[in-house]
């Protein structure tokens, strides 16, 4: 009987062990399956992020293409819509649009943050900008004067800045590193400007109004593409008053804003005075001027993404401060170049130096604010950037008209060097390795 009980006990233990082993195997299998499922979902998420980054980059690219189409043949286009000859009419033509950029950049960002949506505003901005381009092109046939054309440019700028600023904000909303995402934005900006310069020059050589119609078509396509991107805007956003108060209360933002201002000043300078200088000093047509401008924008675009990723690893200080000093020196050198070949080579150097500054500067914005305030912070950055473009147009137009091209190049390059030297200490303070991918102490 004892032996029988012992056998039943051992049989019971063996049964329990068998059940236990089966449960363990089941648990291990389920855990492995769950881990595999999470891995698949993570991989799909990463692929989705990369795809969204590409699509948003194309939207930013499209907005820049539409703008830069106008630059190589700007004098002919402005004359065709009633602006007359000389450098001042093109100056006001560009200033009208960028004045609206200044006035409406933050408004779009605040609206987007407060409602927690991005995509609808990008689409509306792109389509509205396209409509304004068509209206400007039709102005001569409708008997509208240059004053009405300038008003239409203001309306178009109010729409276009919404598409541009919020498309960059949607890139900021993505995971993967601020430097990488802003590098994608910078690459899109540079490639858009490069292609826009080349194609815009060819279009202007055929018909001075074609760059306007081409820009409208590209903006419509950009709006359609933006509509396919998932909206990652923060759910519910922040109250408008809170956003405005927080933007004002973050003094660290003034550092990237200041660099954004001067960097865009030089871009505005080259868009107006740089093109005019190349055409006048070396006697080239609009098509050649567009190709020449692309010598700056192509290296500027090609290096943005790798430099943005590099700044995630080494910090923002060296790309921003060192790049700005070299950038300013190269700008002055272009104005001193005695031959077209040397000026063209120096424009390549300007593009390389500019590529070190732009993505790291934009990434600084995301470093010093929480994600819920990205749109408002980038809206503020674009206000300063648009003010810089305005200043660049004015420096390029007014200083050139009064003192000549060399003085204008000295002012533009000197300002870039000055901001780098003056703000170097502040950059060192907020660009510590521990703050590269999140909010800094100053930024909360």
From TrEMBL:
TM region positions: 54-72, 92-111, 118-138, 144-171, 183-204, 210-229, 254-278, 284-305, 317-337, 343-365, 377-399, 405-428
Keyword entries, A-Z: Membrane, Transmembrane, Transmembrane helix
Pfam family name, one: MFS_1
Major facilitator superfamily (MFS) profile domain residues: 252-444
Superkingdom field: Archaea
UniProt entry tagged with the keyword Chloroplast: no
Matches recorded under InterPro entries: MFS (IPR011701), MFS_dom (IPR020846), MFS_trans_sf (IPR036259)
Name the UniProt record assigns to this protein: MFS transporter
Species name: Halorubellus litoreus
């Amino acid at each position: 009987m004892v032996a029988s009980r012992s056998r039943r006990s051992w049989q019971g233990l063996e049964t329990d062990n068998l059940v236990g082993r089966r449960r363990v195997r089941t648990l291990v299998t389920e855990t492995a399956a769950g881990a595999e499922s999470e891995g698949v979902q993570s991989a799909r998420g990463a692929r989705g992020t990369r795809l969204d980054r590409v699509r948003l980059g194309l939207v930013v690219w499209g907005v820049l293409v539409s703008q830069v189409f106008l630059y190589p043949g700007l004098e002919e286009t402005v004359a065709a819509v009633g602006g007359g000859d000389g450098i001042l009419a093109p100056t006001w033509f560009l200033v009208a649009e960028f004045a609206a950029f200044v006035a409406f950049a933050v408004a779009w960002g605040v609206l987007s943050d407060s409602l927690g949506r991005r995509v609808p505003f990008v689409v509306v901005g792109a389509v509205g900008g396209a409509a304004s381009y068509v209206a400007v092109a039709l102005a001569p046939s409708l008997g509208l004067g240059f004053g009405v054309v300038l008003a239409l440019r203001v309306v178009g700028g109010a729409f276009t800045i919404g598409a541009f600023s919020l498309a960059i904000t949607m890139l900021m909303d993505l995971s993967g590193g601020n430097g990488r995402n802003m590098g994608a934005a910078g690459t899109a900006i540079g490639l858009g400007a490069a292609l826009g310069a080349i194609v815009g020059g060819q279009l202007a050589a055929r018909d001075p109004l074609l760059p306007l119609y081409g820009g409208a078509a590209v903006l419509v396509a950009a709006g359609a593409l933006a509509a396919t991107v998932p909206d990652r805007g923060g759910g519910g956003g922040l109250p408008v008053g809170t956003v405005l108060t927080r933007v004002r209360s973050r003094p660290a933002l003034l550092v990237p804003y200041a660099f954004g201002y001067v960097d865009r000043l030089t871009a505005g300078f080259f868009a107006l005075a740089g093109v005019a200088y190349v055409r006048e000093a070396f006697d080239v047509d609009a098509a050649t001027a567009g190709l020449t401008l692309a010598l700056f924008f192509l290296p500027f675009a090609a290096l943005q993404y790798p430099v943005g990723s590099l700044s995630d690893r080494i910090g923002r200080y060296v790309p921003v401060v060192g790049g700005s000093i070299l950038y300013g020196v190269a700008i002055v050198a272009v104005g001193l170049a005695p031959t077209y070949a040397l000026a063209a080579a120096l424009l390549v150097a300007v593009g390389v130096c500019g590529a070190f500054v732009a993505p790291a500067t934009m990434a600084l914005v995301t470093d010093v604010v929480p994600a819920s305030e990205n749109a408002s912070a980038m809206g503020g950055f674009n206000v300063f950037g648009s003010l810089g473009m305005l200043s660049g147009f004015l420096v390029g137009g007014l200083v050139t008209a009064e003192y000549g091209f060399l003085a204008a190049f000295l002012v533009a390059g000197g300002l870039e060097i000055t901001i780098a030297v003056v703000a170097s200490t502040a950059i060192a303070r907020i660009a510590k390795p521990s703050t590269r991918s999140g909010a800094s102490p100053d930024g909360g």
